[in-house]
Amino acid sequence: MTEIKHILETEGGLSQVAVERAISEIRAGRPVALKSGRSHVLVTGVEALDQRLAEVLAPMARRTARLVLPAPRLRRLGLDRVKPGAIALPHLNLARIAALSLEVGARIDAPVAALGKLDLAALELARLSLVLPAVVVIPVSSRSIEGEGLVRIEIKAIEGYRNGTLRDLRIVGRAPVPLEGAPDTEFVIFRGGEGLRDQVAVIVGKPDFGKPVTVRLHSACLTGDLFGSLKCDCGDQLRHTARHMAESGGGVLLYLDQEGRGNGLSNKMRAYKLQAQGFDTYDADEVLGFDHDQRGFDFAALMLKQLGITHVQIMTNNPLKIAALEAAGLEVVSDQRILGRLTDQNIRYLASKRDRAGHFIDVDAAVSLAGAKD
Predict the structure, then answer these.
(1) Sorting pLDDT into bands at 50, 70 and 90, what band is 146?
(2) Does the active-site annotation cover 107?
(3) Strands 251-256 and 213-219
(4) Distance (Å, whole) CA 224 – CA 244
(5) Share of the chain above pLDDT 90, in %
(6) Catalytic-labelled residue, pool 73, 216, 261, 295
(7) Of 146 and 280, more confident
């Protein structure tokens, strides 16, 4: 057992395990203890805070609890903020906490303080856990939480977690998987890069990795890819890409577990509900406390490098993906647009991506083309 512990400590594994346990606790709705030096706090996600948990935490709060919110949510509350902040919670008032964290028409009702390292780590833990980015932070003493069975974690482990998962990115399995329209296809499964999630490289055909390879970075979209949602063009992009690669000498499609632009499936559904109320895709995310795009693509570049790819012809409408691959040292030889069907339900979505995130989408031309086809 001593040798196993040595291996974990050498590779930073103990810190990784601690963060992964903390992520599981937050997702399960249980508080986690964060520490930095002699300072300790209890952290719980707002979405898990119910009356029973509030009653348990109230004696420890002692008028010192605070609600930590990201900058986009604070802007929605009426503040001109570019940094996250904390709002004092004299009492764990569930209605007030819910309103400040999630209510569409809520407005700030108290001063907002700058965040310390523990607060920032708590927000990052929520992000890693794919829960609503709003957390209640309660300063506590180490003695007061002894024997409570809480997961405890140093904030430096959270701060270094993402780099650790990038370092550990590796192939864990591969097999041929014939697809409709692309029968000569292999799936290569990677672990790491985004923590507890697996990522997939779909190698279509027999591309020559010594030459520029046609590549697409496709973030998973359960509603569009699997169920054919009319709200986006993701499913069409996925299938058109595979078919194009099969007919054009092959390529590599990276299927990345980054649902909802990195916000997670539950938050994506919250955003969809807001969109049904009239918000566009980016305003909906801001209401929930998210920036326009939470995704990182550095691990996608590492996946390509591990496959032996250094020069790419990327199929994308997103300039961030092009920049990310270039920043990671890959040569982007060319970029090609990929569009799906236009529907009454996705035209506004596509226009928002063009106008607010700089995506290369000529919606007007696509509308004209769709009209011509009809």
Answers:
(1) confident
(2) no
(3) parallel
(4) 19
(5) 76
(6) 295
(7) 280
Check if 109 is active-site. Answer: no
> Of 168, 291, 293, 362, which is the active-site residue?
293
pLDDT top residue among 4 and 164: 164
Give the residue extent of every domain in the chain: 2-162, 169-258+295-373
Q: Which pTM value belongs to this model?
A: 0.89
Give the pairing type, strands 85-89 and 65-69.
antiparallel
Using alpha carbons only, how large is the chain's radius of gyration in Å? 23
Fold of 169-258+295-373: Rossmann fold (3.40.50)
Q: What is the pLDDT of residue 217?
A: 97
Q: How far, CA to CA in Å, does 78 sit from each of 36, 45, 81, 288?
A: 32, 22, 9, 14
**Where residue 193 falls among pLDDT bands split at 50, 70, 90?**
confident
- The whole-angstrom separation of Cα 115 and Cα 188 is 41
**Identical topology for domains 2-162 and 169-258+295-373:** no
Q: 2-162 falls under which CATH superfamily?
A: DHBP synthase (3.90.870.10)
Q: Give me the mean pLDDT over the 247-258 stretch.
A: 96
Q: What b/e string do you get for 279-295 counting C-beta neighbours within 10 Å, with b at 16 or more?
A: bbbbbbbbbbbbebbbb
Burial of 189 (0-12, 13-18, 19+ CB in 10 A): middle
Mean pLDDT of 8-17: 66
Rounded CA separation 190/119 (Å):
32
Reference 191, options 180, 181, 204, 200; nearest CA is 200
| 3-class DSSP assignment, residue 68 | strand
Rounded to a whole number of angstroms, the distance between the first and last alpha carbons of the chain is 69
Dihedral sign for Cα atoms in the order 54, 59, 63, 67: negative
Nearest to 312 by CA among 299, 325, 298, 300: 325
pLDDT number for residue 12? 55
